[in-house]
Amino acid sequence: MSKVKTGIGRRSFIKSVSLAGGGLIIGFSWLGCARNTEEAEKELGMQMPDEWFELNGYLKIGDNGIVTIYSPNPEIGQNVKTSMPMIVAEELDVDWNNVLVEQAPLNTAIFTRQLAGGSQSIRQGWESLRMAGATARQMLLTAAASQWEVPVSELSVEKGVISHSGSDRTIGYGEIAKAAVKVEVPEEVELKNNGDFKIIGTSRKNVDAKKIVTGQPLYGLDIHRDDMLIAMIVQPPSFGMEFKNMDAEKAKEMPGIKDVFTIDTYPEDMEKEWSDTGAFSKLVVVVGDSTWQVMQAKKALKVEWDLNPEMVKQIEILEKSPGLMDSGGLENSDIHNSLMAQVGSKKSEMIRKDGNPEAAFKNAARVIERSYSCPFLAHNCMEPMNFFANVTGDKAELVGPIQTPEFAEKSINKRLGIDLENIDIQMTRMGGGFGRRLYGHFVIEAAVISQKMGAPIKLVYTREDDMTNGVYRPAYHVTYRAALDGNNNLTGFHVNAGGMSESPLFANRFPAGAIDNYLAESWAVESNISIGAFRAPRSNFIAGAEQSFLDELAEEMGKDPIEFRLDMLKRAKNDPVGENNDYDPARFAGVLELVRDKSGWNNGNSSQSRGVSAYYCHNSYVAQVLDLTLKNNEPVIGKVICAVDCGIVVNPDAAKNMVEGGTIDGIGHGLYSQLSFKDGTPQQSNFDTYRLIRHREAPKQIDVHFIDNGIDPTGLGEPPYPPVIGALANALYKATGKRMYKQPFISELQGDFKT
Amino acid sequence: MAEFNITINGKKLKVDVDPSTPLLWVLRDHLKLVGTKYGCGIAQCGACTVHLNGSAVRSCQIPISSVTDNKVTTIEGLSENGDHPVQEAWLEHDVPQCGYCQAGQIMTAAAFLKSNPKPSDEEIETAMNGNICRCGTYTRIKAAVKTASNSHIV
């Protein structure tokens, strides 16, 4: 057992203990406690308690031993609503079958990081979740010891039942909870040894699964209030344009329409949070009784748009480009691509330099240089952006899908001047996040609309609104150069990476640290197309590019691609170059060795075209081997073998699901998806033109193998995505003899790539 | 606005809406049956799939005026206790990630298995190809459809 100070969550414990006082704690699920209770009784066969006792902000115990655990973080499909409570239940020592899970609302007094992003929920929640369970357990034991007048050390717990070793006395958590509430919160608690885990490391079903498969209301779009109105937006058709004027007369007279007006989501004098990224601040809003009526009224609106001088001014570099002379600053994908290809060499900033790369390239017998690029992408969460808001006087009630509730609360405070304590934010299950819902402009929009209408409203984006609303995965471009000496040894490595309008470079990641002469440079080109984090930001492009380049390099050097990487990792481990390498070479090599063995790489264990790739991001390591064949120039992916090191795996089957999904997501976007622009207008606005991977195109089989090393958990939501694009590119090369340099690869395969 | 008499999940209901209103929005906004999801509005994603006389259809493309006396089944009415073999198989394989598309996937799969109780892998992929899962649960969906097809009671 390890002792851990309870300091981190101290504030929450003190607060909740004084809150609890033995009384009934009202559940704050937006579906209502009563309904949850009723459903639990019916579906789980649980008897609901008469009284609940809250031992800390994370959990409450019923007088019959049923435990409710609040899942603090937003659920976007990464399954934290199951795995976070599992960690609490582990240290609490209860029977998982007696646990009910509820989504916690935003509560910064109790929880430390209520955010879904960076694959950090489990990693950063690990200690506080364990402590929450262990502290409550300790308080329950102390209460039992005091009642029996025996030392705590003579007590043990099994599935929520406390036993005394010196007698045959036992007592359930439910029976002692009332007394435990009065016990002082321990200054220090003991956490279990990994070997004693009974819940962590065992597969537990998604706690919302039954509701999902029976169509129960779970998502923001499912919210309904009797007096609620529906609001929708009309936004500029192009990046670089803004609202000029409108004729709303006809729309206002349409059945069910309450009002048509404009809002300015982010007035110039508002102090923004980082999450306040939105392409269009000024929007036309239509409010009415029902979604279909509002959709019809949107179409009847006549809106005039104008060039936005600020947005056009932003793109100074673009304006110098001949292709933009006549466009008035509205951007085109072909200009993006040619600019990115030209700018890198002229505008780069050196980020890292080891040894003497200039000399290495000067003295090289051979230099291999390759460039890779990718287009903008839209997140395309299946549930379009939406939010419920009810702003009344000095209070705001906000319910819906948001990855960053804490920042949304601050933004609402600044935008509407409502005190933080009067802002109530509740999180619904989300129909996907992928980074899109980090940027909560739609929460502010909903609140501003509700305030203006003086009514509760649900803001709903159509698919087209959602896809053309910006906050895209940037378009990127990277050039790699490798210097080889006369003996085909790698003597220098140069990466020059940038994008519109951020760089994808991670200068301190592999292969930095493994090469004596190394140079990493970075650049960015301004654009008025708004960008944001997209699943595995930056890694989602540069991993595939780098791993394709290393594959080509290995081939040029006459080396096996896995052995080539392992040799470099050996160097990085035994004699690292530089001091800031941000990966662990041994763990990196571990996943490569595992995927090599599991795929039978050395035995030529596949009749299909095979590619390998490995990458480190979000504190975790993933290696993948992908097998495919070609049928009419379309890849048919047979199998992907994944080796993953994310430390302790909390919920193995769910983790496997996440790796399968990330793998398919990476393949889909690398192979099929792009968002292109003509005169500032997105050329894809729905799934008839924007291609997402479908059933037939998914791998026939995905095998997932985890490294079992007992290290505290690291990220999992994002790491499986980036490397698989490299494995795909390398397998496509085997199948076609052609290297893939431009995403989406399907265009290269079918020879119709338009720049 | 006009009154329509429709049969949803075996219940006879009356709604007063514009005749052009798609079945999807009648279900979601007027009947509060929100299990049927909005994803694209143009029959490309399959999130809004329901059964019309047992066949899988895209409810975003069906104006309420054309529903007439056809029997509509939504995810809420697929089974009484959420124990349709396809739903059971979905639970067994713990298919969902975000879960948003899954009602549509289940409705497509349930109608498909009725017409083809013992499908091949390829037939499953083709039948399910119109339903997008943005999280990428395709391999699990296929496994769950296979499990359901072996349950003999679809």
From TrEMBL, chain A:
Pfam families: MoCoBD_1 (PF02738), MoCoBD_2 (PF20256)
Name of the protein: Aldehyde oxidase and xanthine dehydrogenase molybdopterin binding
PANTHER family: ALDEHYDE DEHYDROGENASE
Transmembrane segment boundaries: 12-32
Region forming the signal peptide: none
Record has Protein transport as a keyword: no
Domain of life of the native organism: Bacteria
PROSITE patterns registered for this protein in UniProt: PROKAR_LIPOPROTEIN, TAT
Keywords from the UniProt entry: Membrane, Transmembrane, Transmembrane helix
Domain Aldehyde oxidase/xanthine dehydrogenase a/b hammerhead: from-to ranges: 214-309
InterPro entries: Ald_Oxase/Xan_DH_a/b, Ald_Oxase/Xan_DH_a/b_sf, AldOxase/xan_DH_MoCoBD1, AldOxase/xan_DH_MoCoBD2, AldOxase/xan_DH_Mopterin-bd_sf, N-heterocyclic_Hydroxylase, OxRdtase_Mopterin-bd_su_IorB, TAT_signal
GO molecular function: oxidoreductase activity
Protein source organism: Gillisia limnaea (strain DSM 15749 / LMG 21470 / R-8282)
From TrEMBL, chain B:
UniProt superkingdom: Bacteria
Domain spans labelled 2Fe-2S ferredoxin-type: 2-78
Species assigned in the record: Gillisia limnaea (strain DSM 15749 / LMG 21470 / R-8282)
Entry annotated with the keyword Metal-binding: yes
Name of the protein described by the UniProt record: (2Fe-2S)-binding domain-containing protein
Any one GO molecular-function label of the UniProt entry: oxidoreductase activity
InterPro entries: 2Fe-2S-bd (IPR002888), 2Fe-2S-bd_dom_sf (IPR036884), 2Fe-2S_ferredoxin-like_sf (IPR036010), 2Fe-2S_ferredoxin-type (IPR001041), 2Fe2S_fd_BS (IPR006058), Beta-grasp_dom_sf (IPR012675), Diverse_Oxidoreductases (IPR051452)
Pfam families: Fer2, Fer2_2
SUPFAM superfamilies the UniProt entry points to: 2Fe-2S ferredoxin-like (SSF54292), CO dehydrogenase ISP C-domain like (SSF47741)
UniProt keyword annotations, A-Z: 2Fe-2S, Iron, Iron-sulfur, Metal-binding, Oxidoreductase
